[in-house]
Design goal:
Length: 290
């Protein structure tokens, strides 16, 4: 459905309109088409707000989607709060958020409490070191051994004689949950630093010789060096091909199915899962779900 952006009549308070059987908050404007005689063209414009809360790893995606949606619907406000995946799902379930952003699959308890997993993109997790590190690849077992404390010096994996500083995310982080689940090391990791955002992990690794950390693949830049795993580089193409094993879903959870949400939230998902939203996902380095 193509929504026109011109707004002719401003209504005080909430009004109800129906388009194709769906009811939404917004405004309607009807006028005669000069070239079509008695044909009536109805322009509808959404208004209201959508609140997203959750994963810090979804910062770039959620912010870009919010910007694109508000550009399309100027009378809608999309606010995004980045507090971590678990906190985001809690906010969804207690009713303080319309959508809970999670950079991991939902837990059984969350689903039992009514959360529905809507995957909107796929992200790769990059394992990074500082630019001075001579190691450029690890096996899966070496990575596991580093994070559980069995390997503590880079010379044990072919690097220089330098202690390994193990950096990761805080408990409750979707990135940490996905990383540990994929490696099957839940509650076994020995972190020197557990940081509260993807950006903080990247900055710590960049500034700390001997550090290793994991971040969302789309935030990798020249300040860190992503390691190949099992000889496979951390690239979008390799994740798509299934050759790079550290990948996870980006979830925008709802309380109940999308079809049960208010029409504004339904329109949000039509945008996010449609060509416009998926183009945005691709533009920030993620793998689309189209």
């Amino acid at each position: 459905m193509k929504i026109k952006s011109s707004k002719v009549i401003a209504l005080l308070g909430a009004c109800i309109f129906t388009v194709g059987g769906l009811t939404a908050c917004g405004n309607t404007n009807s006028n005669m088409d000069a070239n079509a005689g008695n044909n009536t063209e109805v322009a509808t414009e959404l208004s209201g707000s959508v609140q997203l809360v959750g994963s810090t790893s979804m910062d770039k995606l959620a912010s870009a989607l919010a910007e694109g949606f508000m550009e399309k619907y100027p009378d809608v406000t999309v606010s995004v709060e980045f507090v971590g995946s678990s906190a985001g799902i809690e906010s969804l379930l207690d009713g303080s958020a319309d959508i809970g952003n999670s950079s991991r699959n939902l837990k059984e308890k969350e689903i039992a409490n009514g959360a529905v997993e809507n995957i909107v993109a796929i992200d790769g997790i990059a394992v990074c070191v500082d630019p001075t590190n001579s190691v450029n690849s690890l096996t899966k077992q070496q990575l596991i051994d580093i994070y559980v404390g069995a390997i503590t010096n880079w010379n044990q994996v072919g690097g220089m004689d330098m202690p390994i500083t193990v950096v990761g995310r805080e408990a409750g982080s979707g990135t940490r949950g996905a990383f540990e689940e994929l490696l099957e090391v839940e509650d076994l990791c020995t972190y020197a630093n557990g940081l509260d955002s993807t950006g903080a992990v990247k900055a710590k690794v960049s500034a700390t010789p001997g550090a290793i950390g994991y971040v969302s693949m789309d935030v990798v830049d020249d300040s860190v060096v992503p390691l190949a795993l099992e000889g496979v580089a951390a690239t979008v193409d390799n994740v798509k091909a299934g050759d790079y094993f550290l990948s996870r879903p980006f979830v925008m959870a709802t309380k109940g199915e999308i079809s049960e949400q208010n029409p504004l939230v339904q329109e949000w998902f039509a945008f996010v899962l449609g060509s416009e939203g998926q183009d945005i996902a691709a533009s920030v380095g993620l793998i689309t779900v189209e």
